[in-house]
Write a structure and sequence with these properties.
single chain, 361 residues, alpha/beta, 9 strands
Length: 361
C-alpha cells in the first residue's frame, strides 16, 4: 500500500503528481518535448511531487507519447526517487504479455518506483486503433478488458493455474526468475491502477480493490458520479484496504493572470482542432489571438477552459483546494498544457511554491 498512497507536501491538501502528455508546440520538435519531459521529471522529483505518469496517445502530431514504456525508461535514467508510470497504457491496443514484459523491465530498471496504469479506450481514432490492433473489431477490445486485465495480472504474478494454456509461459523479467537455480525474488511488482472517464473502470476498480484514476481533465461532468461509484463498489483486497482515487486536473499557473488566459486559450484551440478531426501541433498564443473563432467555437473554448484551473499561483492553489473539497480525491495529478516547455516548467514551479513544497536542492 505504501507504493500507492502518497504523502502531501507543504500545505497541499493531498499528494500532488504530474501527468505528462509530452506536448509538441508549433515550431518545436519531439526531441524538444522529450527534453522538457526530462527537465520536468527532475523538477517534480526535487519539489516533492509524488508520481510522474505518461499517457499513451497515437496519431496526434502535438502529442509525442505514443510509447510510454520507452519514455519511462528514459526518465528512469534521469531520476532517482519519484514514482514513474503510465497514465495510462491502453490495454486493448497490446498483448498482455508484452505489457507484462515491458513493465517488468521497467521495474528492474527502477525497483519500487513503477506504476502500471491501464485504460480500455484506444487513445486515438478508430482507424488508428484498428491499425494498432490489426483488427477493426474495436468494441470487442473494450468488452474484453476485464479478461485482458486478468491475463495481464496472471503474467505479472506468474501464477496461471496448472492446465492453463499459458501456464508454461513467463513474463521476464518477472517472478519466474526466483524459481530458477540461484534465483532471487524481487520484492517489487508494479501496482496496477485502472483509469477511466466513465463508470465502467470505476466499478471494476472498486470490485477488484484496485486504485482508480479518473480523467477529470476531459470528463469533468462525470467525476463525482464515477468516484462515488468507485467508493460504493470497493471491496478490500491484498492491494488496498480502503479506496484510493486520484483525478487528473488541467492546471496552469503563470506570474500574470492575463498570460494564463492566453496560454490556455491556445491549448483549447489545439483541442478544438482535435475534436474537429484536424489534430496538429499546439499553436502559439499569438496564433490563437488572431484566430477568428465562430460563435460555436467560442462556446467550446469557454466550456473547455471552465475546467482548466488557471491564473496566478494563488488562484490555482485556491482552485485546486476547492476541487479537492468537492471531489474528496486522495491525490491530484496535474497536467499543464501549453505551447512552450518553459511555460509548463514554470507552472509546476509556481504551484509548488504556492503550497510551500520542498525547495529544489
Amino acid at each position: 500500500m505504501d507504493e500507492i498512497r502518497g504523502t502531501a507536501q507543504g500545505t497541499a491538501p493531498v499528494p500532488l503528481s504530474v501527468l505528462d502528455l509530452v506536448t509538441v508546440g508549433a515550431g518545436t520538435t519531439a526531441t524538444d518535448a522529450l527534453r522538457t519531459s526530462v527537465a520536468l521529471s527532475r523538477l517534480a522529483e526535487a519539489r516533492g511531487f509524488h508520481r510522474y505518469w505518461v499517457a499513451e496517445h497515437h496519431s496526434m502530431p502535438g502529442v509525442a507519447s505514443s510509447s510510454p514504456a520507452v519514455i519511462l525508461a528514459h526518465l528512469a535514467a534521469h531520476t532517482d526517487r519519484i514514482r514513474l508510470g503510465s497514465g495510462g497504457v491502453m490495454l486493448p491496443n497490446h498483448a498482455p504479455l508484452v505489457i507484462a514484459e515491458q513493465f517488468g523491465t521497467l521495474e528492474a530498471m527502477a525497483p519500487g518506483r513503477i506504476d502500471l496504469g491501464l485504460g480500455r479506450a484506444p487513445g486515438t481514432d478508430g482507424a488508428t486503433a484498428a491499425a494498432l490492433r490489426r483488427s477493426d473489431q474495436l468494441n470487442e477490445g473494450a468488452d474484453d478488458f476485464p479478461q485482458q486485465l486478468a491475463e495481464l495480472t496472471r503474467f505479472l504474478d506468474d501464477d496461471f493455474p496448472d492446465g492453463h494454456p499459458y501456464a508454461r509461459i513467463h513474463a521476464v523479467p518477472g517472478p519466474v526468475q526466483a524459481t530458477s537455480p540461484g534465483g532471487v525474488q524481487s520484492p517489487h511488482r508494479p501496482p496496477v491502477w485502472l483509469l477511466g472517464s466513465s463508470g465502467f473502470s470505476a466499478r471494476l476498480a472498486g470490485m477488484l480493490g484496485l486504485p482508480f484514476a479518473f480523467a477529470h481533465h476531459f470528463s469533468a461532468q462525470n467525476t463525482i458520479p464515477a468516484l462515488d461509484l468507485y467508493r460504493d463498489s470497493f471491496r478490500p483486497s491484498e492491494v488496498l484496504d480502503a479506496p484510493y482515487a486520484l483525478i487528473g486536473v488541467s492546471a496552469l499557473a503563470t506570474d500574470d493572470e492575463r498570460e494564463a488566459r492566453r496560454q490556455v486559450r491556445a491549448a483549447a484551440l489545439n483541442m478544438l482542432r482535435l475534436r474537429m478531426g484536424r489534430p496538429g501541433l499546439v499553436p502559439t498564443p499569438e496564433e490563437a489571438e488572431v484566430h477568428e473563432f465562430s460563435p460555436m467555437e467560442e462556446e467550446f473554448i469557454g466550456s473547455w477552459n471552465s475546467n482548466v484551473v488557471h491564473g496566478t499561483p494563488d488562484e490555482v492553489r485556491s482552485g485546486l483546494d476547492d476541487l479537492h473539497k468537492r471531489t474528496g480525491a486522495d491525490e491530484l495529478m496535474l497536467t499543464s498544457n501549453a505551447h512552450s516547455g518553459d511555460v509548463r516548467l514554470r507552472s509546476y514551479e509556481l504551484i509548488a511554491d504556492a503550497y510551500g513544497m520542498p525547495a529544489a536542492a
